[in-house]
Amino acid sequence: MKKLVSILATIAISASSTSYVLACPSSKANEVKDVVFMFDAAAGTNANIQKQYKKIVDDFNAANADSSIKVTLETPTAGAISGALASGESLPDLYVTYPDNVVKYLASAPDEALDMSTVMPSTLKPKLQSFMNEGKLTVDGKEKQLVLPMAKSFDFSAVNLRLLKELTTMAITKISSVSKLGDYLGNSNIVVSDLYKNELPENFKLVGDEEKIFTSLANAKNQDDVKKVLLLNSNLATISGFMYRLDREYKLVNADKMGTGSKIYGLGIDSLSNKVFSEYAELLKTDSIKTLSENKDFLYNYYDNKFSVNKSTGLGGLQNEMKFLQQLKDLQGKDSASLRGDTTLDSKDTEMLYVPTLTGKKKYSSDFFAAGTMLLASGSTAGSFYYKSGNKVNKDLKVTFDDVLVMGTPTDKGEAYTAQQGPGIAGFKSSSEDKQKVANKFLEYLLSPEKQAYFGIFTGYLPSNEENYASDSDYVKWIKGETKPKDENGKEQSRSNPLLKQYIDMVNSGDANHFFTVEGSPLGNGVRSDVLTSVIQNKMMDDKAKDVFLKDSNLTDYFWGNDSTELKTRATYAFNSILTDYDPNGSVTYKAQLPSVLKEVNLLDRKED
């Protein structure tokens, strides 16, 4: 008989007592003789990803045709695993998911969850420790490896070198100490773009740190010199302000070269939440931000059945990001305008920063970057194939892969701390020893360098296996265009991607770049979506006051919220909503209910179910 936690426990971890139902496996469950490999709908997917997993499953079954137990791929609707946990139906032997989801399932079936360290195949030798750290979860005060790394995506920043060269060339005409571009931007391989009219007017003056920044860029000897400048939040904000003035004050844009619907942005950031996490990783100097144990220097913790928001000690990373956003707002210089600005497609006016909205017609920063009208775009390596221009872009603005410099996430100190994430492989204990053996054999096959390389090259994800990062590996040869992989029909396909090659070089560079992950938490997705994305990315970007993000170095009510109608649904409200969505029976108690004062707040002392 299978012991399962009650249906209430599928959405909550009980503090001191847990209700159980004893459910005999149904006849349907008994009929499942094959190994079930499931794509957890909560992890998100697309047709191409499913196709690549299906090919791996089909290839495995073909290679093991004499086995009476096959592997079947299932792609159910959302809630399938939670529903099976609640009803006593059979569970997948292996499934693709994120650690946040595993924490929830673990609460419901602690005895059913598979400790993946006990089945980790010898074929898996992770390139980075953070790949393994992402799947380690703190359970009863101890770390357990509950997810193994498969496909990885990284945040990355793409720099349009053609546009950077144009901006620097214009700026140094106003700098007496610089007569020409140095070795890097002066390279003839970087063809200057033509987004702006050639000469700055006589009355144009560099302001603030513009002279210092453009002098450093002009004198750059190599790409590392450029990265040192552009990895700093403050420098990026200043350059974005420079672009804003070129258009808004001096009308120097060659608008006739811009395509329909294109628009100039200094910067684009697809995920402000990942950038906030990068600020924390830089402050904490860590490759794994802990959330399931006490970590008062981080924004939130969930441990000992309490959800805590560290308002006195854990705001450093968030404040550093808000300082960056406030600098952009100040450089914009319009108290009555939002930082998002005019997003209508018929407006070609320059804006400081683009972040996607829930209702925007253009979803990613890469849309504007590929149009040649954005200097820096931060997004996921999984979408790196979209950072080059299409055929309709004017040749004077067109961006090829060779025109792009790849680097990590800009932060307050510019120390190259970059988030890595991606769904991995978790499991439940199989119903028979024979099924478990087949599941283990399939896991070894799935996580082998060969299968990870094939999956990665056709999905845009990076493999987790160390072998795939070697210069003579099939994967790197495919990325470099030296050879071509064959698709499911046996046809060779070009998958050359110099952007991913640059990123592989970053991963191989050792201490020059830092890659981190955030420990999974049952409330982690809620904080990311309801606080960092909804409040900052979708609401504060539209606020029009002078001090939207920071005032006197403190977070404002535009973040925390207050009793006024327009600010009720901000961070304090969101934190409470995350909690009550997770556990409708939970109560909220505050140690200090001072939304505008930095005090520690424990949001929950959980009641017994």
UniProtKB/TrEMBL annotation:
It comes from the Bacteria. This is Sn-glycerol-3-phosphate ABC transporter substrate-binding protein. It holds the Pfam family SBP_bac_8. The keyword Signal applies. The keyword Protein biosynthesis does not apply. Coiled coil: none annotated. It comes from Spiroplasma helicoides. Keywords: Signal. InterPro entries: Bact_solute-bd_prot1, SBP. Residues 1-23 form the signal peptide.
